Automatic annotation (TrEMBL):
Gene3D superfamilies: Dihydrodipicolinate Reductase, domain 2 (3.30.360.10), NAD(P)-binding Rossmann-like Domain (3.40.50.720). The lineage of its organism: Eukaryota, Viridiplantae, Streptophyta, Embryophyta, Tracheophyta. GO terms for molecular function: nucleotide binding. PANTHER family: OXIDOREDUCTASE FAMILY, NAD-BINDING ROSSMANN FOLD PROTEIN (PTHR46368:SF14), PTHR46368. It comes from Cicer arietinum. Belongs to the Gfo/Idh/MocA family. The gene is LOC101508659. This is Uncharacterized oxidoreductase At4g09670-like. Residues 7-126 form the Gfo/Idh/MocA-like oxidoreductase N-terminal domain.
Amino acid sequence: MANETVVRFGILGCAQISIKLCKSISKALNATLVAISSRSLEKAKVFAAEQGLPDTVRVYGSYEAVVEDENVDAVYIPLPPALHVTWAVKAVERGKHVLLEKPVAMNVAELDQILEACEANGVQFMDGTMWLHHPRTTKMKEALCDEQRFGQLKLIHSCMTYNPGPEFLKNSIRMKPDLDGLGALGDIGWYSIQSILWAVNYELPKSVLAFPKSTFNEEGVIISCGSSLHWEDGKCATFHCSFLTYVTFDVTILGTKGSLRLHDLTLPFEESFGYGTFSESSEIDYGNIESGRWCPKPNEHVVETEFCQDVWMVKEFVDLVGKVKSLKMKPDKKWGVKSKKVQIVLDAVKESIQRGYQSVEIMMN
């Protein structure tokens, strides 16, 4: 992207995640925050003061004001999922590029509305999943693609859980069907499904079967569930997501010759120190089976990085927007394709639960 091209951000909402994005935008080259908004001007002013935002950042008491601001090139939308389709489409129709928090929509039909609007208005779409942009993710993909070390992929298991406590379970937007409705499945289940699809190069499974006895709150929102995914070539995956158990962000990927394990998918343990790690095993010594030493110790790979993963995400988004803005290039559609495939599987898991834990076939488009 040309050095003189600066992407000017507006943020719709003062959610907790907005704090991280404010900092990320400030660290990303050729990005600047020019506007923030909330449902009330007072709340937006308090947020700006608490985060020490410069006086040049315009503070609005409505989301509409940011969308209508001609000096805003791109918007970050951390609003409740039920509001995504409304505000994303409004922003896109006014020519704003969209960085949209996950889950990106309540269902794939809503996401289609957003992506169709992006296509019609020539703007860039990306969801706000940060781990995909960490440099270690590229290194992990290299390990999976090394047939000599990893072999053929056979099984994936992802476990994404945390216990936020009774206050969250009672009052969080994640627990309100009119604001979210997807609960744990949309919040951390999104990461599980995404990690599985990432490992298989976003090849959709043939079928999805939710595990019996999902847990719901009194309003019918999912707070704990799991599912299996099955492909025609025999590989399979399982995942569990929950707001009821201790924090875990694990992914295990098993191949015929090796394995890959990560215990901190969504946020690296050592992110503040500028690097992330993952473990990889291969080359089993079958000659030592009788001695009990045949299982190899995993190799730990350290991937150093100059920036945290949220900064890398913003940098990549800004680069794509800059190419559209200054070089008149077409938006990169791959991010919308990836998000849609995650949403398709998420919808299928929810459908399986609603149908009494029956298998749901996924139709290939």
